[in-house]
Write a structure and sequence with these properties.
By secondary structure, the chain is an alpha/beta fold. About 40% of the residues lie in helices and about 15% in strands.
């Protein structure tokens, strides 16, 4: 029997129709009747459950074969669902960020092991097509050495950035900045917003002519080039990616900045321990430090700074969900494997921590917290620009790195955009100071200087 609201094909055999009915019944129980849904579902036979709650759905989930639901949800977890998308068991047509909210709905519906077990019983009645072989991500056997040891961190970075400079150039901005942009008005394009971010960082650090700047995890070198060009500092950028360093140093040479700027392949833990820098930045790197290494990380940076110097730590932070209360805290919960897909296929060994953990580790290392700014809305906007550019370059990207890599990046960036937009992740810029023996730091009394004077772009 076809569920209310479904648009069925004119004629289908009884066995084929029965499979559609089973899938519709499961989806009905998970998401309610089509009349109440804001998204559409299209089945492998062409029939459609329309989105009855809206005139035009933001996206359509396309089940590509009778075993799609089983591949998506058996066992139910974020990892199973994500792998099914990357493998091509189902498609998302339309707004991928909006579709990412479906995973949250599923998680909330399947909080109890009993609900998950009931779903699995029903899914096992659906056909289960053979799994197709594909790249298994970075397995535990591929992660050599203790977690967040220098050797293992280098392997994790290579896994992510060995996609190649050409891949990133297809969807990043002109300066190849792979971190949250800054939108002063909200109307900037991605290129202008990334230049504004570089300027915002330099202004927060109150860079002055002749100062020595260190950029930890410098990527393709955009920040050190901007700082040297517009603030006349001397700068060292360090990265664990050889491909990034080669690109950065080629751009430095092309701009004629080689006498004041260089990028090296080096772990921050291998820098000489004595104070050598007036200002230090770390942009999008703390996410890979690991919570057990936070205190050593901040202690290392503290030693590298001259007294009175400033350190700007820019990174993604995890926002905890509200505490459960009452009986629900005591009941067993189904393991949704949150973050397992990112760890295996995108950022191995990534470890998002909360803002309070960052500040506690920094202050216990001797730093004085001077300013905190949450730019999570800016990161949602950044990711939307990246996703549009990725999707518009889909053919070139698939030709360069393959269909599954394209689908992996589309999925991970869309999921992150959803989390930033809804407040489940944040992007915090934390300005830290190393007081001199008299307790002084090189900061003005207000933030007015951040927004005054000429903009370097």
């Amino acid at each position: 029997m076809t569920r209310p609201g479904a648009v069925a094909p004119s004629s289908k055999s009884a066995p084929a129709r029965s499979l559609i009915d089973r899938a519709q019944s499961i989806l009905y129980d998970l998401f309610g009747p089509p009349a109440l849904r804001s998204f559409a579902i299209r089945y492998w036979d062409g029939s459609t459950d329309p989105a009855g709650a809206v005139d035009s759905p933001a996206f359509t989930i396309v089940l590509n074969h009778p075993g799609s639901l089983a591949r998506m949800l058996l066992p139910p977890s974020q990892l199973t669902l994500a792998e099914a998308y990357v493998r091509g068991d189902f498609e998302v047509e339309g707004n991928m960020e909006a579709a990412a909210g479906v995973a949250i709905q599923l998680r909330n519906r399947l909080t109890s092991p009993v609900a998950a077990a009931r779903l699995m019983v029903r899914l096992r009645r659906l056909p289960r097509s053979p799994r197709r072989r594909w790249r298994a991500g970075l397995s535990k056997r591929g992660r050599l050495g203790p977690r967040h040891s220098p050797f293992r961190d280098a392997a994790a970075v290579r896994y992510h950035y060995d996609m190649g400079n050409d891949f990133y150039a297809l969807w990043l901005d002109q300066k190849m900045v792979y971190s949250c942009a800054y939108f002063p008005t909200g109307q900037e394009d991605i290129h202008s917003a990334q230049v504004a971010k570089l300027e915002h960082l330099c202004r927060k650090l109150r860079l002055k002519q002749g100062e020595r700047l260190l950029d930890i995890g410098c990527g393709w070198g955009a920040l050190v080039r901007h700082a040297v060009e517009h603030y006349d500092v001397r700068a060292l950028g360090i990265t664990l990616s050889k491909a990034q360093a080669e690109h950065a140093n080629a751009a430095i040479a092309e701009q004629g900045l080689g006498e004041r700027c260089v990028v090296e392949v080096r772990d921050y833990r291998d820098l000489p321990p004595e104070p050598a820098f007036d200002k230090i930045a770390s942009v999008g790197m703390v996410e890979h430090v690991g919570r057990e290494q936070l205190k050593p990380y901040f202690s290392c940076v503290f030693r590298l700074l001259h007294p009175g110097g400033l350190f700007l730590n820019h990174g993604i932070t995890w926002v905890a969900e509200p505490d459960q209360s009452g009986l629900s805290r005591l009941l067993p919960r189904w393991d949704w494997r949150e973050g397992a897909f990112m760890d295996r296929y995108v950022f191995p060994d990534g470890d998002l921590v909360s803002l309070d953990m960052i500040i506690a580790a920094a202050e216990s290392s001797g730093f004085d917290t001077r300013d905190v700014e949450n730019l999570r809305e800016h990161y949602a906007m950044t990711l939307r620009h990246w996703i549009r550019r990725l999707e518009s370059s889909a053919a070139a990207i698939v030709g360069l790195v393959g269909e599954r890599a394209y689908r992996t990046w589309r999925l991970y960036m869309s999921g992150c955009a959803s989390r930033f937009a809804t407040g489940r992740m944040a992007l915090d810029q934390v300005l830290l100071a190393k007081p001199d023996p008299r307790g002084q730091v090189s900061l003005p009394l207000t933030r007015a200087d951040l927004y005054a004077g000429d903009f370097h772009g």
